[in-house]
Amino acid sequence: MPRLLLLLFFCGLLTAAQAQQRLAAARQRSYLTKVFKLTEAQTRHLYEHGLGKIRPDFFAVPVDSFPTDSLRPRPLPLGYYLVAHTEGAQLVYWLRTETDRTLDVLDNQTDLALVVRDSLGVPRPDAQVAVGGRPVPYDAATHAYRLAGAGQAGLLAVTYGGYTTFHALMQTFSGERPARHFSWRGLRQRVLYGFPLGYVLRPTRRLVYDVRQARYIHTGPVGLVRSAFSPDVRAERRQQRDERWTSYLVFSQPRYRPTGDTLRLKARILRRDNGRLYRQPLTLWLAGSAAPKRLATLRPVRPGSYEYVLPLADTLGLRPDTYARVYLENQQGKTLADGHFRVEDYELDNAHY
Q1: What's the mean pLDDT when you consider all of the chain?
Q2: Which of 4, 38, 135, 325 could form a disulfide with 42 if both were Cys (CB 3.0 to 4.6 A apart)?
Q3: pLDDT at residue number 181
Q4: Of the candidates 310, 297, 312, 315, which has an alpha carbon nearest to the alpha carbon of residue 343?
Q5: What's the number of CA atoms in the CB half-sphere (13 Å) around residue 317?
Q6: H or E element in which residue 138 lies
Q7: pLDDT higher than 70, residue 336
Q8: DSSP states of 23-41
Q9: Which of 13-27, 114-128, 337-351 has the highest mean pLDDT?
Q10: What are residue 297's DSSP bridge partners?
Q11: What is the pTM of this model?
């Protein structure tokens, strides 16, 4: 009899352990995710206080449900919704927005300025815009909603087309200037390196620093002296001069026929360090299947900008199914801008109307 009771006891333990294992491996998430419609007042409450301040009445109007494991929930009409499902004993929810408008905030570091656009990207001057309950008027001169001196964080409400959307504004700059505290060190720096002593002391300080770190310097007077004795320094100075300018060159289309098409190009060249625009004439070259051909000498149509139009013909020697290179050289033979296009004897598709 004691052996029978002991056997029944161990069988009970084994059954309980198996049940606990099945429970641990069971699904913890709900099979369906529910969608609840929010009113304008409820949406404003969530934007002002956060999702942590949600109330039970926010789940009063269910409008849709879909499998939780689905990656493509169904589209919904314009408005705000709470989407919720359960994970174990926890209720997981988030805010879903269906809108037909976008908001572009123009940061001028002072005022609140913004543009409201519809789903096609067209500005909407007929919207009602308010921040913190304060109306933001439309400024026809700047084609934007503008409120002078109101560049601060707040909740923005945009109303048109029968419903309101909310947008949280963040202040991206400090509204106050940092307080400046007097210090003898700061006073000394302003006296020594300000006007007029700074015109002499700043270059002197730079020269002293370069002399102390001469083995690492390849620019300025120290670099010039080192270049007389070191080919590596000369190469670095030459590379720096070659990379002084930055540019881009674009074509009117990515591919052209060898004959019959018209190549149009535009180029922009400016200094890499300070943005100064290039103003000197440049030589335009075309390198295709044959030797490079000199096409023209271009002068800027405006500072930093060059344009050229070239009807393609047999005399250029372009072959189909190859790439051609166009580049601009200065008077020293340095290439300042270049680009490639494909040469292809393509045919346009027939169009039917």
Answers
A1: 81
A2: 38
A3: 64
A4: 312
A5: 11
A6: strand 138-139
A7: yes
A8: HHTS--B-SEEEEEE--HH
A9: 114-128
A10: 283
A11: 0.44
- Type of residue at 13: L
Task: Give counts: helices (H), strands (E), the chain.
Answer: 6, 20
Summarize pLDDT for 83-113 with one digit per residue, the tens: 998 888 788 888 998 888 888 887 766 678 8
Q: Look up residue 97 and give its amino acid.
A: T
* 133 backbone dihedrals φ, ψ, rounded to 5°: 80, 0
Arch. (CATH architecture) of 245-343:
Sandwich (2.60)
User: Would you call 158 exposed, middle or buried from its count of C-beta atoms within 10 A (0-12, 13-18, 19+)?
Assistant: buried
Cα 109 → chain centroid? 20
Q: How far is CA 81 from the centre of its chain?
A: 29
What pLDDT is recorded for position 300?
93
CA distance linking residue 62 with residue 342, whole number of Å: 57
Whether the bond into 67 is cis, omega within 30 of 0? no
Cβ neighbours of residue 135 under 8 Å, at least 6 residues apart? 128, 129
Token digits of residue 50: 């956060």
- Examine the pLDDT at 351 and tell me if it is beyond 50: no
Domain boundaries, the chain: 32-98, 103-154, 184-242, 245-343
